[in-house]
């Protein structure tokens, strides 16, 4: 677990933007999977304005989602909808390089279809598709992707995407553990004091951390960078 600490959420977001979008797209094709929720909103807003907007080679970016709520894209809960409003409507990424999860479809069907799509677009490392970059979020309960503590089995599910269920019962299409861990570059983007107890428990390897899906991911790869404003 590599800690990249910055003083403010904006500095964190700018660092994530450079590491996850600018540098990979300068190198060539960049297949990038983003998470949803509230944290990435600042990242997307900064990517949509100068200087970052011009620093990214948008023509080289293929964008995917780590997870999606099973709602229509126009629903306020939609991760795609949030990304479209804050980023996609403001940058010249080719439309056929934006690969949204169809939250309006049947969850099990969409998990299979999106697994196929990702399999068709990406190279494989053994059994799993390899993203160039995956940006993970961190839930206040230690979840990541939409793998929640009550569904730890998704950390070992072979199919690249499966159906997760949020604690409130909302179905999600979620990237599963082996595909997350197969990424060329894996990073967490987690800011705000609410993330502090989770991050500190994971960093201290406390017994309760083992219940966190994020802890499992961080224990299974040692080159994961955590971008945060939390003092650890
Ligand atoms: C989602 C996200 C989820 C998110 C965490 C953190 O669909 O909700 O992908 O995994 O990353 O819940 O959410 P916040 O950024 O809102 O704290």
Notes on the structure:
There is one protein chain. The radius of gyration is 16 Å and the shape is globular. The protein contains eight helices and eleven strands. A six-stranded parallel sheet has the order 1-11-10-7-2-3, with helices on one face. It has a three-stranded antiparallel sheet with strand order 4-9-8. 33% of the residues lie in helices and 19% in strands. A hairpin with a 5-residue loop joins β8 and β9 (171-175). With 232 residues, it is an alpha/beta fold. The model has no long low-confidence stretch (mean pLDDT 98). The longest helix has 19 residues, at 9-27. The N and C termini lie close together (12 Å). It has one domain (2-228): Rossmann fold (3-Layer(aba) Sandwich), CATH 3.40.50. It has helices at 9-27, 39-47, 52-55, 79-86, 107-121, 177-181, 196-203, 213-220, and strands at 2-5, 30-34, 61-65, 67-69, 124-125, 128-129, 133-136, 161-165, 171-175, 185-189, 225-228. The structure holds 6-phosphogluconic acid. 6-phosphogluconic acid (6PG) is lined by residues 35-39, 66-67, 69, 79, 137-139, 143-146.
């Amino acid at each position: 677990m590599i800690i990249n600490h910055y003083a403010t959420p904006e500095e964190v977001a700018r660092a994530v933007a450079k590491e996850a979008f600018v540098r990979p797209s300068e190198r060539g094709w960049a297949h990038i999977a983003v998470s949803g929720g509230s944290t990435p909103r600042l990242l997307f807003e900064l990517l949509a304005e100068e200087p970052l907007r011009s620093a990214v080679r948008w023509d080289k970016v293929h964008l995917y989602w780590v997870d999606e709520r099973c709602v229509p894209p126009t629903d306020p809960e939609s991760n795609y909808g949030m990304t479209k409003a804050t980023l996609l409507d403001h940058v010249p990424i080719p439309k056929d390089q934006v690969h949204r999860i169809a939250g309006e479809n049947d969850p099990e069907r969409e998990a299979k279809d999106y697994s196929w799509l990702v399999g068709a677009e990406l190279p494989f490392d053994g059994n799993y598709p390899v993203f160039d970059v995956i940006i993970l979020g961190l839930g206040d309960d230690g979840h990541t992707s939409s793998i929640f503590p009550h569904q730890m089995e998704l950390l070992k599910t072979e199919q690249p995407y499966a159906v997760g269920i949020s604690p409130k019962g909302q179905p999600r299409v979620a990237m599963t553990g082996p595909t997350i861990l197969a990424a060329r570059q894996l990073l967490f983007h987690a800011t705000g004091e609410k993330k502090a107890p989770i991050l500190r428990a994971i960093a201290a390897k406390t017994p309760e951390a083992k219940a966190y899906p994020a802890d499992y991911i961080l224990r299974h790869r040692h080159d994961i960078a955590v971008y945060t404003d939390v003092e650890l």
